Each structure stands twice: as C-alpha cells, then as structure tokens.
Fold:
Amino acid sequence: MNKAPESVRKEMLACVPNLRAFGISLSGNVDRADDLVQETLLRAWAHLDSFQPGTNMAAWMFTILRNLFRSEYRKRHREVEDADGKYAARLAAMPEQTGHIEFGEFKNALEGLHSDQREALILVGASGFSYEEAAQICGCAVGTIKSRVNRARVKLAEELFIENPDEIGPDSNTRAAVASDPAA
Structure:
C-alpha cells in the first residue's frame, strides 16, 4: 500500500469537486464523470511516486482525468447507446423556472463548442487554472489555449446573444467563462 503524507491525501481530495465538474463537462453524464474521478484517484494514488513534489497536484490529476476520458472516448467511439432515444426521452423534463431555461441554453451553447475550445474554457474559466497550467494539462502551447478560450468566449456570447458578460446570472463561474480576458 502507498504510504503518502496526510498533506498529499488532503491535496488529492481537495481536487475532487473540480475533477467531478470537469468530468461532467467532458462526458455530459454525472455517473460517467463519477467513474472518471474514481479511476483518476485510483491511478493517481497508484502512481503517486511519479508525481513531482512542488508541482501542481490539481493539474496533474486533471491531466490524468483528461487522458482517461480520451482513452475511453476512443474505445467507445463506435458504441451507440439508446439508438432510438426512448431512454433519453423518459429522462427529459421541461424546465419550470427561467433559471433552468437559461442554464439549459448555456449548457447547449457550451456543448456546441468544439471540444478543444470547451475543454480550454472549462479549465481556465470555470476551474481557475492559469493559461500555462491549462496548456500543460492539454499538452499544447499557451498561445493555443489563449486562442481556444477566446474563440470559445466569443462563440458563447454570440450563441447566447450576450453583449455584456454581466448579463449572465449571478454565477461567477458562468460569468468568468464568457468574460473577455485582457491577458488573452
């Protein structure tokens, strides 16, 4: 069994809520996201000796989750679940409040983004990673991340007919996702 200091365990567990949110944004499914997070924790724990102390634990774990998702996606690329849509139709419910409608519109607009743009936007805008950390997680240049985030924000604003990011509800993560970044 792996003998890690209590601080490392706490640092890993502190990542779980953001890992789960990232998993949901990638997979679009809460149960699948929970499975991804669980597998991420297991792999991180099993390979803790490969983690370099002093580096960003969250970025390391996000990279593991992202790689797991990509591997799983390649495996399932040809799978078709619920081909006739009957199961999904039973789960669908019309929103009862304006907030639910707006969130649904935001979710649809977010899902309409190219996967690379959505991934970069979630990492930088919602998960709070720096451009450098997001670039490390995605395995690309910082400029590429900045470009993806900017394009994603512009497309979201267009899709949602937003001229001012403050028009989006009180959720700071939502506002951050479509706000223009002067550093970009």
Summary: The first helix runs from residue 6 to 14. The radius of gyration is 18 Å. The chain has a mean pLDDT of 80. The chain has two domains: 6-76, 97-178.
